[in-house]
Amino acid sequence: MSKFQDLNKQYIDGEWRDGTGKTISKDTNPFNEETLAEFKMASVEDISEAYQSAKQAQKAWSETNPFERSTIMENAVRIMNERREELVELLVLESGSSHLKANVEIDFCIAITREAASFPLRMDGTMVPSLVLGKENRVYRKPLGVVGVIGPFNFPMYLAMRSVAPALAVGNGVVLKPDEKTAMSGGTILGKIFEEAGVPKGVLNVVVADMGEIEDSFVEHPIPRMISFTGSTGVGRHIGELCGRNIKKSVLELGGNNALIVLKDADIQRAVNAAAFGKYMHNGQICMSLNRIIVHRNVYDEFVKRFVDKAESIKVGDPRDKDTLIGPLINRAAIDRLLGQIEEARQQGAETVLEGKVDGNVMSPVILTGTNEVATAKNEMFGPVVTLIPIDSEEEAIRVANDTPYGLSGSVHTRSVEKGVEIAKQMETGMVHVNDQSVNDEPLVAFGGEKDSGLGRFGGEWSLEEFTTLQWISTQNKPREYPF
Asked: What distances in angstroms separate CA 337 from CA 83, 155, 284, 372, 399, one per listed residue?
C-alpha cells in the first residue's frame, strides 16, 4: 500500500478501472507536494453506473443472513487492525496527518465499524397495540435502499467510514465519493477493505470525480434515498436543498465555530492543556476544533501566558517525523485564506500574541486576542489560528459562545462539574464537554450539530436510526365492520 498500488482507480460494480471523465487529477502530498497518484476522474455516466450497481446488488445484500453481514463487518475491523501501519502511512502522506492524528483516526474507524457489526442483529420489529378490534400492528426496521456518501479531506478515512460502515451493515447499497484531495485515504482504501472483508460485488462503489464536471448529479440521481455529507456549511446547505427538492433524506455534518469557556474557578493548566489539543490537533483542520477561547478576565492574563508557552512547545514540521504534532495544511490555498483572515482581524483591532511562521504549506500556531467580532473569531479558521476573548461573567461567556450561526461542539472549564453542566445546557451546540476540549467522538454517543452545523446524528443507535427506515404492516385477524 505504501506504493498505492491499485488505489488510483474507480471501484464500480466490483471492478477497479479508470473513470471516463474529462480530467486527470493529481493526488499530492501536502507537505512536499510530491505526486502520489493520478486519477482518471469519473464521469456522470460512471456515477450513474455505480448507483445502478448498488441498486441491483442491494436487495440480495439486505436479505443476507444478519450474522453473515455482521461477520463481514468484523472482518473489516480485523483488516484495519492488521494493516494499521499501512493505513497510518497513507494518511500521513496523503492528508498531512501527524502519526498521532492518523492513529486516532484508525482507532475511530475500527470503533465505528465494530459498533456497526452489531447493527444487522438489531434490525428488529415491534408490535404496537391497535385501536381497531382484531388488528395487529407491526413496525419493521428496513434499510433505505441506496445511500450516497460524500466525504471531506480532513479526517478522510473516518468521516467516510462512519457513514459507509453503518449503511452497509444495515443492508444498504453505498456509493462513496471522497474529496479528490484525499481520494485514496477517504475513498478507494475503503473499497479495498470491504472488498477483502467480503462485501459482495456491486454493493459498495467508490467514485472519484471533479465537481466541476459532474455538478449536482451525485446528489440529484434518482436512485439514492439518502445523501450523507460532511463538509462546509455552504455546500451542505446546497445539498440539503437538493435533497428536499428531490424528496430524499439527508444527514449533514457541517462547519463549526467552537468555543472553550474558561471560568474564573477553572484549573488553568488543565484548561491550557485541553485548549492546546482542541485547537492544534491536526493543525486545527477539524470541524470540532476550537475557534475561540473565552476566558474570565480574573484569570485571563495567566491563561494567555501559559497558553502561548504551551503553543510554542509544540513540534511543527514534517508529519513523517513521529514527534511532529503540527504538519501541513491541505494546500497553499488554505494558508493564503488564513493569512487573509488574520490580517483582516488585525485591522479590526485584534492583537497578535503569538506570530506563527509559514514554511511551505506548514503554519505554526497563531494566537490572537480580540473580540467576538474580529474575522478570526467570526469565521471558522480550519487551521492553527485561535482568538482569545476576555469576558467578565458567566452570563457574558454564554452569550459570546452562542453569538454565532454555528452550533457543533464546545467545552467549559470549571472546578464545579455541576456548574459546568448547567452552563453547557445553555450553549446552543450539539455537543459540550466539561473540563475537556471540543474534539471528541465516540461510537456509542450521538454526534452532530445544531443551527448551521448540520442535521442528524451519527453514532450508536442514532446511526442505526439514520441509515434505516420504518414500515408499518398491519394484519386484520378478525373481520372488521365498515360503515359502508
From this structure: 36, 20, 14, 19, 28
Nearest to 119 by CA among 463, 472, 471, 469: 463
pLDDT reported for residue 1: 39
Q: Report the alpha-carbon distance of residue 140 to residue 70 in Å, rounded.
A: 19
Q: Answer whether residue 357 shows pLDDT above 70.
A: yes
Catalytic residue among 89, 105, 253, 380: 253
What distance in Å separates the CA atoms of residue 244 and residue 231, rounded to the nearest whole number?
18
CA 146, CA 33: separation in Å to the nearest integer?
36
Give the Cα separation of 280 and 296 in Å (integer): 22
Active site residue 243: no
Q: CB neighbours (10 Å) of residue 82?
A: 10
Side-chain-side CA neighbours of residue 263 (13 Å):
21
pTM equals: 0.96
Q: Is 253 a catalytic site residue? A: yes
List Cβ<8 Å contacts ≥24 apart for 479-483.
Answer: 479/134, 480/132, 480/133, 480/134, 480/135
Catalytic residue among 49, 287, 380, 466: 287
The model's pLDDT over 451-473, given as tens digits with 9 standing for 90+, comes to 999 999 999 999 999 999 999 99
Cell numbers placing 378:
467570526
